[in-house]
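Researcher: First entry.
Model:
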Amino acid sequence: FHIFQLHNIFSTTSIDENAFVAFVSQIRKGYVKENPYHNDLHAADVLQMCHYILTVGGVQKSMKLNQLDVAALLLSAIVHDYKHPGVTNGFLQNSSNVIAIAYNDKAVLESYHISETLSLIHI
């Protein structure tokens, strides 16, 4: 939340702060605690690194990113591994897992993460 405030996301976009907090709370619940890597701490780490690259690294300025661009990047950092099952695309494909079948063995986890995220906001 604080990183989004530092980037003035709420004051320059139509993102409602309360709705955002509720959304992020749901995302956090979707990260599997038992997953040793792809968990909520990993999402927070990726978010922090994106913030660092944007600011200290100068990417926001050099790429002339607007607030919507920054919001999209920071949000994608939070959700990029949402509901990660802890196995690879290859494992899901080779085991004929229902997730792999649903996405026709193409970008299985990537499709799964964004699909599950979008289902939270009913898109």
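Researcher: Second entry.
Model:
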Amino acid sequence: MKKAGLHFPRQFKTMTYASKAFHFVLLSLVLLAIHVSTSEAKSLANISSSKKLQIAVPSERILEPRFDAVTQTAEAAWVSGMKNSVASILAAASSKIILAPFDTIKTLQQYSRTSAATAPLTLVEAAQVLLKRPRGVLELYAGIGVAVVGSIPSVGLYFGIYSFCKQRFARLDPDENRRVAYIALSAGIGNSVASASRVPYEVVKQKLQTQVYANLGEAIRDMSFSTLFPTGGIASQMIRDIPYAVVTLMAYEHLKHKWKPLAEEKFPRVPGQVWDLLVGGLAGGLGSYVTNPMDVIKTRLQTSSELYGGSVRSCVTMTFQEGGPAAFLRGSVPRLLHKVPANACFFLFYEFFRSALRVDDDVVLKKRVT
């Protein structure tokens, strides 16, 4: 006789802890989105019923939720989502070309493995190693073509879905008190979809930067499903990207809507583009530093998956044994030197292209009137 209780499929029992965690997070996001959608649909239905009763009942006795005002946008959510997707693609290409050298140095630092007799590469040492290679300064831009072309689908999906979800949530529930939760949820959904499309170009770009591939031709000849999607590659990508997206966009939206207007009011002569640079840089710096340990694991699994058996857990354990907690901050300086100006440039270009495309997606959220 079978014991009562929960019974999981055999495939679930054989999953790694990282895979189980990823599926749990993704399922939680989906359930939360369904819960929000159904609860708001019920709320709208209740409001509609209350309005029908308003003919017979005095207005002061209607107890429906009230807000001091709600500003609707002129565009449909899918239209602004498409425009944000195009703006983000153009902004990503511009910022990646400008700041590629810092990303190459960061990747080389994280890829290098140390022993008791050797110390990890410093920022200057990593740059010197790159400059001593046959192509000299051009080595700092190794993988730039792959990075720019490869980022187009992932960035477009990411910001398009993020913008669509954020606007839909804001229209369903204009209460400002839940705005932060909807930003985090939208960022998580957007990056969950985009992360899988980001893995192949990250793998090829990093192998070009670390000279696992001598050139793009060699990378193309070696292309297969197993090389483009190494074991543990997608899980490690999501473990880094989803927290990075949530932290960065929460910080960016807060600074953009709370801090930037105060700064513009206090310093009216400073151009608005300066505040876009500062807001983007601060948000990107915070997100980058918080997620640097995940970035180290991602880089190692995507460039040398066979050394860790494709296991996130084995990679974490071996990295810790190699250099202790400090090993997980390896490459954090060049990563910050890359990500802070990269996000500053990205959001500057992003807001510029949003303005050029006349994006209208800011639903003004208001506090509930009691």
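Model: Note on the second entry: Strands lie at 66-67, 368-369.
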